[in-house]
Amino acid sequence: MSEPHDRRAAVTGIGVVAPNGTSTDTFWKATQEGLSVLDRVTREGCEHLPLKVAGEVRAFDPAATIEERFLVQTDRFTHFAMAAADFALEDARLGQADTSGEPYSIGVVTAAGSGGGAFGQRELQRLWGKGSRFVGPYQSIAWFYAASTGQVSIRRGFKGPCSVVASDEAGGLDALAHAARAVRRGTDVIVAGSTEAPLAPYSVVCQLGYEELSGADDPARAYRPFTEAACGFVPAEGGAMLVVEAEQVARERGAGIRALVAGHAATFTGASRWTESREGLAHAIRQALEDAGCAPEEVDVVFADALGVVEADRAEALALADALGAHGTRVPVTAPKTGIGRGYCAAPVLDAAAAVLAMEHGLIPPTPNVFDVCHDLDLVTGRARVAELRTALVLSRGLMGSNSALVLRRGAGNA
């Protein structure tokens, strides 16, 4: 890449709140073991809806980490974001950072698709059931997809570049790329990522129009991409936030370089046009590799989009072959999201977090619940695979047609 060495974008912190773990350590332990936590939906008000299986975050107490004054004005998806941001900043040794001297040195970028559905539904029920005087003042902001960026920045006193990426599920990767560009342009630190909470009744009803949504009621069979039995995806809540920082700034303060955000590209091919997504995704992969100065054969692992729709899965497998050549059928591919569900914008950020951890540990996590692969892929199934990993490719596609590819390099501090 063309930016100066000291402005390279490094990942220095990871914070996770996921169905399989509410810390980075517990998330990685479950991910590397290939545990599946998909289960029947238990959220109140969803009992009689057609969605039967999801990835719920059940072991999470927002009050344990977030002040009451912020809890009352925010939705569950923002609770996830604030907690994950805290974890990521602590991991990056910025947990107690005093921004009073340089408040513009740190910014926030998030992506979200579903917004604050539970908060919005509750307040609208009060409006129609009791009257306007019973609607809280935060209804105007808590449901909004930009709420997490705003609340994280306000709570922590971050006044650097703050933004929200609205580009479908692929927005999770686009947010990380946006953060990397801000760092290259001169901002020292960006807290970036995505969290979602799409399992409130109103939010679920909105999702029922997606043809790609799995209606299966067996958790072990509800989300099985790259197989002939693929019947759609299972939604999930939770997500991850990463600290993206100028490499030299991080080194000067003694922080570890967990990975480098080396390259990114995005394309658009239209809603549910999965055959066409082959070309769009392949183009994004090529451009991301070019941005990273990376040859196709240098890719050591691919974290797949893995939609769980036969046509879409076929297109992704062919896109890898198109973009990586013969290496596309040999490179190890994984989709750990089959064990926790596909959390919309949060899904690729969790994949990016897993990719960083995989490079650090030299271990490719398996794809839970998937065994009988029917596409020409070296899909890692069953158990984790030991491998020397220096470059990871993370892919994402959105139901509305966005495609995104992100290249991560192993941090020199972990070499």
UniProtKB/TrEMBL annotation:
Keywords: Acyltransferase, Transferase. InterPro entries: Beta-ketoacyl_synthase, Ketoacyl_synth_C, Ketoacyl_synth_N, PKS_Beta-ketoAc_synthase_dom, Thiolase-like. GO terms for molecular function: 3-oxoacyl-[acyl-carrier-protein] synthase activity. PROSITE patterns: KS3_2. Residues 6-410 form the Ketosynthase family 3 (KS3) domain. Gene3D superfamilies: 3.40.47.10. One of its GO terms (biological process) is fatty acid biosynthetic process. Belongs to the thiolase-like superfamily. Beta-ketoacyl-ACP synthases family. This is Minimal PKS chain-length factor (CLF/KS beta). It comes from Streptomyces griseochromogenes.
